[in-house]
C-alpha cells in the first residue's frame, strides 16, 4: 500500500495513504463481541442458550483473524509505533478485562457460559489495542 | 481567553514534546480501581452505589459537555488553537474516560445483580438490557473510533511539524463521535431515571 504523491512535490501526505479497512473490521468484531456479551448477560444469573453466543464469538474471532492477515501484509508501515502503542494499550485493557472477568467469577458464572464470556473478553482485550495502535501508526512515517 | 492568534508549534522555539499519558494521574486511577474492586468484593451497597452514581454522573456529564459544548467550540477554532487545546485536553481524557467508564459499568452490573434486575422475571429487567445495548453502542464508538483518534492526535502533536490536515481529520472524528455518545447519554439518563423511579 503506497501513499499518493504530494501536489507540491513535498513528502506525500499520510492522510492520502490507502490502507486496509482495519478499523472498520475491528469495529464489526467489537459489535459481535458486545452483542454476544449483552445476549449472555441478559440471562444472568441463569444460563442463556449458548448457540447464538458461540456463533457471535466465532464471527468476532474470524474478523480479528482477517485483520491480523491484512496487517501482516503491510510492508511500508510504522511497526515500531504500532507495537509501542499496542503494548501499553494491551496492558491497560488487560487490567480492564481482568476486572470484568473478576466480576463474572465473583457472580458465580460457571461452565460453558464462563468459557464463552472469557473468550469474548480475550477478543475484546486484543481488539482494542490493535485499533488504537493501528490508528496511531498509520499517520507515522517509516524511517 | 483572548483573540490573539496562537502560532503553530513548529513556528515556535523547540517545545517539550506533548504528554501522551499523564503519569502523575495513574495513582489516582489505581486508587479508583482498587475502590471499585473493594466495593464488589465487600458487596457494599453504599460502595457500589457511590461508584455507580459518581462514575455515571461524571461519564454522562463529560460526554454531554464535550459532545454538545466543547465539541462545537473546538470545531470552530483555528488549527493552531485546536492544537494548543488538544495538547492539554486529550491526555487528561485518556485517563479520565476509561476510569469513569470502568467504575460505572463494574459497579452498575453488581448493583443490578444485587437488586435482582438481572433476573429475567424482574419487571425492570428490560430497562437493564436496554442500558446494556446503549452502553454497547457507546463502547463500540468510543473504543473503535474515539479513543484511537485521541491517541493518534497526541502522537501527531509530538511531531516537530504536525500535519494540520491529519489533526483536523482526527479532531473531526473526535467531535462527531463525542456528539453521538452525547446523544446516547440522553438515552442513558432516561433508562437510569426509569430504573430508579
Question: Overview of this structure, please?
Answer:
The complex is a heterodimer of chains A (about 140) and B (about 200). With about 140 residues, chain A is mostly helical. Chain A contains four helices and no strands. Chain A has helices spanning about 20-40, 50-70, 80-105, 110-140. In chain A, helix 1 packs antiparallel against helix 4 (about 110-140), helix 2 packs parallel to helix 4 and helix 3 runs antiparallel to helix 4 (about 110-140). Chain A is elongated, with a radius of gyration of 18 Å. Chain B has one domain (about 20-195). Helices cover about 75% and strands about 0% of the residues of chain B. Classes of the chains: A mainly alpha (about 140), B mainly alpha (about 200).
Write a concise synopsis of the structure shown.
The complex is a heterodimer of chains A (143) and B (197). Chain A is mainly α and 143 residues long. Helices cover 69% and strands 0% of the residues of chain A.
What ranges of chain B have pLDDT less than 50 throughout 5 or more consecutive residues? Answer: 1-14
Shape of chain B: globular
Question: Could you give the order of the helices and strands of chain A?
Answer: HHHH
Our estimate of the beta-strand percent of chain A is under 5%
What does the main sheet of chain A amount to?
A: none
Secondary-structure element sequence of chain B?
A: HHHHH
Q: What is the strand content of chain B?
A: under 5%
| Rg result of chain B | 19 Å
